[in-house]
Design a protein that fits this description.
Chains A, B, C: GO terms for molecular function: beta-galactosidase activity; metal ion binding. Chains A, B, C: It catalyses: Hydrolysis of terminal non-reducing beta-D-galactose residues in beta-D-galactosides. Chains A, B, C: Keywords: Glycosidase, Hydrolase, Metal-binding, Zinc. Chains A, B, C: It comes from Trinickia dabaoshanensis. The structure is a homotrimer. By secondary structure, chain A is α/β, with parallel strands linked by helices. Chain A folds into four domains: 337 residues, TIM Barrel (Alpha-Beta Barrel); 50 residues, no CATH class; 189 residues, 3-Layer(aba) Sandwich (Rossmann fold), CATH 3.40.50; 46 residues, Golgi alpha-mannosidase II (Immunoglobulin-like, Sandwich). Helix content of chain A is 32%, strand content 21%. Chain A is built from 19 helices and 25 strands. In chain A, strands 1-2-3-4-5-6-7-8 form an eight-stranded parallel barrel, surrounded by six helices. The longest helix of chain A has 29 residues. Chain A starts with a strand and ends with a strand. In chain A, 61% of the residues are buried. Chains A and B meet through α8 and β13 of A and α2, α4 and α11 of B.
Chain lengths: 655, 655, 655
């Protein structure tokens, strides 16, 4: 459990660096990320490098025993480079080209830009790769931010055609796979294919899905280009990237296979809650705290992406600047978010940023210090955490690997692309749907591991998949040979690998373990809400419902009031035929949790529990003091058995 | 009363064709539409035709006594053609060019594309024109769909200039007609004129209206190009086009004069109800049935366009894919819609589509069969209708020409363009307004013929015109020499042929039969609702109101509570000075209906009546069983005197 | 107090001109604006001028003793000019070029267009500059209308680079001032700088602010080009421009220094109320009258811009055409608006337009006459005002210079640009916020002078500044050496001249008179409304709140219920830390007004008072008769002590 901070020495007078480093160390900060937007200072003219200032900055930090994470500066190429290669600029879906003047003004497919990225990364890693203070490298910054993915450039088109040729080999195979006969969309060669945009009506969904896959691969290969150079010149250091919350434009599991030691992510709970498609009442209720499951969802997701290694690279430490409205977090939230991150297995919580920058785009984004260098309210909270960590001594330094949870939630990036390509109902959002399931399980007091739908889930008592339109073979294999319980949501198994309806109708491959035939599906306008009762609880379907005929051996656990089956089960496999409202979803999952032999601990509003290593944490987002479910006589290393509003407790709970 | 289906042999293995055809025939289907998206299979390379597969498909259908309707494939030109003529792509109002990848990716004004259309249609009609199974030809598919009209290409500009030169002869005449002096918009020659888009503020409305007329003519001449070839090579077959519901981007009456035997249209009541500007309460109430007047409105409109000959070329047969939300229709709706179409005079009800296609853009659009070839719920209902038709024997085969209704509703495409060009109030929509009047009349139990505002309406007891901004001379002539009653809505007679205010103020030409002067007009924000009472019923004006001074001989039938006249009448001519809310509109029309000597039959929610040939039909969209107004002892050929929810009855009612 | 009218002789048969002029004079109109859209008639071919018709038009007006205001026609260049210089067309922020077909189709930075403007203005001023009937010149028409500012052309970019080079001298200075190091946005030369648009995320706010300043200067120099020619060829005549209401895309105070004698503006209270970001309840309540403070705000603003000289160049005289909905004003409003304008110091109230034009874009915009030449209801009201003015005799002719009000409201165009560049909260609108303060003061019965934040405010008892992010030094100087009371709203003093956070934190320079430190700021979603009580009145913060630590000598006058200070004061300086809801704002300002020793006269709904010269006016926008606060025995020159709904009174109130 380490603290870190994002620091931009180039933004401040060099005279301030020494005191900055000293104060960081005093606060309990031990890691500092630098340099990821400094290209124009590192290479002020084409080919002329200026390392002197960065050498001094790294050395200053090192003198105070601070470990350094260097970011490659490829998210902000300088103007001279853009002027030399104007076709490196990204192009939006509507065909308009972006220009220089902010950041991320590059097309990830540009061959020229890739060359320059390799050049600058090679230069940086050669310079600092073996510096003893340097412990990790971050590639670029927040891939895809600001809607720069997908990019619709000529370079993207050219590489997409190559990608397709490699995937399908013959144009006939592609035409067949996409069903291009449908509207005379058949191509005679790969060079006839365009990017799937600016069509009078929807492009072929198979075309779109392959383009999304291609773009995802492009992000991976762009990262790999840098990761390989880092490995070569900076042996033994961690390679990471700082991902974003609720962002799925590329497959993070696949990305990780391109060279990643740690999945780092940037956590901004308050603006995230404002911009997610949550109900208005939730946005209001949690406006100053973030929704209690929003950060946890990403912690659990990225811990899976990093195969257990997860950092928070940027932690919100006060009000920010980028949501439609930007309220001040409630007192105590910065501390709460920090402990919550540790509870979910974060090795490092690094705050954004050391000091609020008074100029340029993010001047309204707070930091640990105000622009006048006094600690901000958030900075004061971090100091408190620093003290608490010191007081915890050994516990803070113990390996805090998360235990395998009892429940696994299967997450799938392709599922997001499939749903987005073919929502069928205007308000069907995959990530939000997965979040609803996650949140319901968390309200039941359960730890949840979010894992790839292609992972091995042996050892989990219960595996839930909100939806998996393209169902991997491995899932069915695991159901057949395993002993765990499974719950699937609607649309599961409905699509082939090329986004066609599966051959013998949905739920496709799932039929072998859950005989059923999805006869018809429907999306539901917000006012259409079919009702049912489950274990005495009244609930409604929202957004989506399927009419399913159960097959041999499949039981109907619940029916809608109009008679249509709502929950099906055969042995250890349960299928929900609709999206359920919150109350019904909690009831349905509680039933499955219980049937899987897991003890749930239904929690009051705002309280959440989480086991990590030998500790169990309780975090209280709510307004009332709560008693935590610690065993009598439990030893508390943080707080005590009563946890107040916006407070945290942790106690030892050996197996 | 025939059943049909849309079928795409090219989407399926040839081994399936025979069984498909056999099953169609068994279900009672007798007509099959094919080929309208098959260009890439008919001409896979420039100039190389492949007829073999289509020959076999037609012959397979013919073997099962199925009659064939061939669609020309010009709505989906193949990629090789687009690459040869990239300037054939359409351009949106914002100036952005569309590209290949879906359908309708062509500009209707492109000379090159017109040539290729003529070539492919000539080839097809030569090949199949005299095939005995071929009974009709459909040109293209849903002209204007996906907002491809108007198209703002260079070709459109060039032809528009020519069209204007032909219309105005001299530029001085055009400048005067458009009032171009207004903002120094005067042109020195036709070649200075641009398309009316991308102007800092509104372009001249006269300019816009002429552009809309030009585009409408372009659609007509594009169709005629094909119709002439069909006539030449396929004598005796019906020429038709499949129009859309609530679509007015071209003048369908004028179009029909370019060579049309049957007005076919594509009926999707559920998504149509979702996307029309109906009140939210109506959208919810009728979400699974479609609004009870939505299909009927188009039936009655297109029966008029086809001079009595109307087909439903594509009938929704289950849930579709293209509305924001796509619920499953209530059980029985596919059958109900079918009988309703026959009741309104459809010669054919053809379902879209034979089998749900599991790939490409419309995979979430149901058909009569599921992708696994089992009948869908809609398919089951069609089978039932097939049986009912067989049971009706002679009645099903009798000529079912609609009787002239007692009421004519005047419809005018130019009225739509005028209102859209100059809404004045943000929520004034011509088609929706016409629909409100139609719906009110239908709620009164009346049959309504929707006819062109330029038609002869002799023989109708009552003629209603929701609005006719550009009032044809023929209307005034008919009022003066006829004996029928007339009701006009606001804005009637307000505009000249070039979209200027009429010379002596509105209601313009109507003054000769209804002396009055429209002093001022206003559009009303939704919260502004002037009130009045009419025959004891309280109501409100919405969206639009006029302050009118009645002239000599004109009576004020009703006044708003603030004293402003609401209904004026002189002899047989009534004028409403505002848009009325539903309650008031029904009351006002009921009054006029009664005064015209017509017996109304006010109907309960969801019930509708319709006379066709010697039969009278009752269709019940509602949730309660209703008694139909059949004479005692009437002979029912379908159902009986009590018609249940989502059910139909028909009895013989000789004159 | 004069009446005027906008007249377009080129739109009407010459035979009508004489009667038009005679009727104008009879109605009491004495000034006529002409020619501002007549370029195509003045110069029908390149270089060929046709003066004859305009000579006759001016002479016709002069024969009836009407004074003429000539508008330069540069807002509507003819097509032939656009075809010669296609790069004179404006470009929108999204990069799309506009085209000919309406008006304002020019880029204010185009060198070629500026040349042609100079040419046509020189020709016109040479022709009419010394005509005895010509008393004033209006340049162009409504600069910036239809979102034509800013314009993103190549010409703008070129001139912007020059403007920046002149402002910063070296690129290093610019990089430092903008903080370009932030995201490697550093430039190596001025020719590397782009316009601040089409960036993946927000461009640097300093970049945007300088671009807004540049564009504002461009408007000024464009106007100056014409003003200088007018001065040269038409000595002694007033130079003016007709500004718009609630429009701040250029700095009108700075503009006035480019050569302006009178600030004229175009007053459309009803549509303005519809389009302003007012609460829905207000839009409904005042839908037919305009909000009672909407016109007054602009009167008081433009009176300040014109250094006391203000005209209403275009006064709404009936329903218009350009809002989403366009209701008919209530009877009496045209008269009320006229007297209200005089009460606020208008020298002239000129109606738009003489006669409703039946053709082209504004055919649905009413005038004093209907298209059939009968007086419209608004025209009747103007006739009545003409009679009232005649009856008032000397009072109508007396110099009606407004007295200095007791309260000055500081207005600042840069404040608008700063807030718009960096709203931080989605609904923070500077002009609306300033309007809320103005309206609250007016409800307290006070006259308000709106003055530039850079003006000398000596003599005002109370000076209020809703917000001044960039606080001029002169304000602090005046506080220190003056005796008046000051009230500042949140965000004041928060930004440097280059839109960075001020060096020692907000409120920046204000600290010298109000020691305090703004620790954190927040924008508030509409549902987040921190509460407080002030003098027993409950209220809420909306949109924005600051957490402020008061410094030595600064008192906390009010705190939010959560303890955070809401109002701070040190001696004569008060600071509100949040945006207050209406009730709270009125209470807070009432407190400050009282403490400043000013007598407030809280007014009932819809009633407003205004002193001008020796007269005091009461205007009643409301529905109930009200007693005006005239001294006993006051002599009324208009109405009497009871003023009815939609009526006006005026009495003599000597000092």
């Amino acid at each position: 459990m380490r603290l870190g901070v994002c620091y931009y020495p180039e933004h401040w007078p060099e005279s301030q660096w020494e005191s900055d480093a000293r104060r960081m160390a005093q606060m309990g900060i031990s890691r500092v990320r630098i340099a990821e937007f400094a290209w124009s200072r590192i290479e002020p003219e084409p080919g002329r490098y200026d390392w002197a200032w960065l050498d001094r900055a790294v050395d200053t930090l090192a003198r105070h025993a601070l470990e350094v994470v260097i970011g490659t500066p490829t998210a902000s190429p300088p103007k001279w480079l853009v002027d030399t290669h104007p076709d490196m600029l990204p192009v939006l879906k509507d065909g308009s080209a972006m220009q220089f003047g902010s950041r991320r003004h590059y097309d990830i497919s540009s061959p020229a830009y890739r060359e320059h990225c390799a050049r600058i990364v090679e230069a940086m890693t050669r310079r600092y790769g073996e510096h003893p203070a340097v412990v990790a490298w971050q590639t670029d910054n927040e891939f895809g931010c600001h809607n720069t993915l997908p990019s619709y450039t000529d370079a993207a088109l050219s590489r997409f055609r190559g990608w397709l040729a490699a995937r399908y080999e013959t144009i006939e195979a592609l035409n067949a796979a996409w069903g291009n006969v449908f509207w005379s969309m058949e191509y005679r060669g790969f060079d006839e294919i365009e990017l799937p945009h600016r069509t009078p009506t929807d492009p072929n969904p198979s075309h779109v899905l392959d383009f999304r896959r291609f773009q995802s691969d492009e992000v991976g290969s762009f990262h790999r280009l840098q990761a390989d150079l880092i490995r070569k010149h900076s042996p033994g250091r961690d390679v990471l990237h700082n991902f974003m919350g609720f962002y799925a434009a590329f497959d993070h599991y696949a990305f990780a296979r391109h060279g990643l030691d740690v999945a780092a992510w940037d956590s901004y709970p308050v603006p995230r809650t404002e911009v997610l498609p949550l109900p208005e009442a939730d946005k209001h209720r949690w406006a100053r705290t973030g929704h209690p499951d929003v950060s946890a969802f990403s912690h659990d997701l990225y811990r899976g992406v990093g195969k257990g290694r997860m950092w928070v690279m940027e932690q919100q430490a006060g009000p920010v600047n980028w949501a439609p409205w930007n309220p001040i977090p409630r007192d105590g939230m910065v501390r709460l978010w920090t402990w919550e991150a540790f509870a979910h297995g974060a090795e490092l919580v690094s705050y954004f940023r050391w000091r609020q920058c008074p100029f340029a785009q993010e001047q309204m984004h707070s930091g640990l210090n105000a622009p006048d260098d006094r600690l901000s309210p958030g900075g004061e909270e971090v100091s408190r955490v620093g003290g608490e960590l010191r007081a915890m001594q050994a516990w803070a330094k113990a390996p805090m690997r998360s235990k395998r949870a009892s429940v696994a939630l299967l997450f799938d990036y392709e599922a997001d692309w499939v749903i987005e390509t073919q929502r069928h109902g205007a308000d069907f959002d995959y990530q939000h749907f997965a979040f609803e399931w996650y949140s319901a399980l968390r309200e039941l007091g359960l730890d949840v591991d979010i894992v790839s739908a292609r992972d091995d889930v042996d050892g989990y008592r219960l595996v839930v998949a909100p939806t998996l339109p393209i169902l991997p073979d491995s899932v069915v294999d695991q159901i057949e040979r395993g002993a765990n319980h499974w719950v699937f949501g609607p649309r599961t198994g409905s699509k082939s690998d090329t986004l066609a309806i599966v051959e013998h109708l949905p739920p496709g491959k799932l039929k072998s373990v859950l005989p059923a035939r999805v006869v018809e599906v429907e999306s539901l306008r917000p006012s259409l809400r079919p009702t049912l009762r489950l274990d005495g609880i009244e609930g409604e379907a929202v957004r989506w419902r399927e009419h399913v005929q159960p097959g041999a051996g499949t039981d109907v656990l619940a029916r809608f009031d109009d008679g249509s089956p709502a929950m099906l089960r055969r042995e250890r496999v349960t299928y929900m035929t609709a999206c359920f409202d919150r109350v019904l979803l909690v009831a349905a999952l509680a039933k499955c949790v219980g049937d899987a032999g897991i003890d749930a601990t239904p929690l009051p509003e705002g309280l959440r529990l989480r086991r990590c290593g030998a500790l169990r944490f309780a975090v209280n987002y709510g307004d009332r003091e709560r008693k935590v479910p610690a065993p009598d006589g439990a030893r508390f290393v943080l707080g005590g058995p009563l946890v107040g509003p916006i407070d945290v407790a942790a106690w030892i709970e050996e197996d």
